[in-house]
């Protein structure tokens, strides 16, 4: 099942990422970019809901949906940092976490052909990040102080959750690799 409604939504989300980058860096319109990022984040929930509701869960979808999330967040964080519209501590914290998790997932995928299951706390953290990043961008473009404070108020606990679940994912990765004999236990 490749051509499903949820997979189409995920592909559209991926296709919106270059438009986001163009709005942010090409047109220097952080407000428009922030609103588009909010749409990309909002449709993250929709494609998963439809996949379950329409019984269209697929292996392709299990790859496309997180890929769309990672691409959108990476574009927002790197583009926002470069353009100066995102606070560097937020950008740096997300980049470090993503590099660790992506590297670990690649190692697990190559050595064990396994996939790390998404945790509810990870979805909750991603929801917070998908609120905070667009809020920072819109606040930067409109000079709206209350929205920037709201972004900080959501970003900090979301990043804490992001790191809590990252440690859980690292534990999952170690268990998978240990089961496959790819990692020896410390002696």
Please write out the topology:
Layout: H1 5-26, H2 30-53, H3 59-83, H4 88-112, H5 120-142, H6 145-179
Helix pairs in contact: 1-2, 1-3, 2-3, 2-5, 3-4, 3-5, 4-6, 5-6
Quick summary:
The protein has 187 residues and is mainly α. It has a single domain (5-179), classed as CDP-alcohol phosphotransferase transmembrane (TM) domain (Four Helix Bundle (Hemerythrin (Met), subunit A), Up-down Bundle), CATH 1.20.120.
3D architecture notes:
- This protein is mainly alpha-helical.
- It has a single domain, classed as CDP-alcohol phosphotransferase transmembrane (TM) domain (Four Helix Bundle (Hemerythrin (Met), subunit A), Up-down Bundle).
- The chain contains six helices and no strands.
- Helix 3 packs antiparallel against helix 4, helix 3 runs parallel beside helix 5 and helix 5 (120-142) packs antiparallel against helix 6.
- The longest helix has 35 residues, at 145-179.
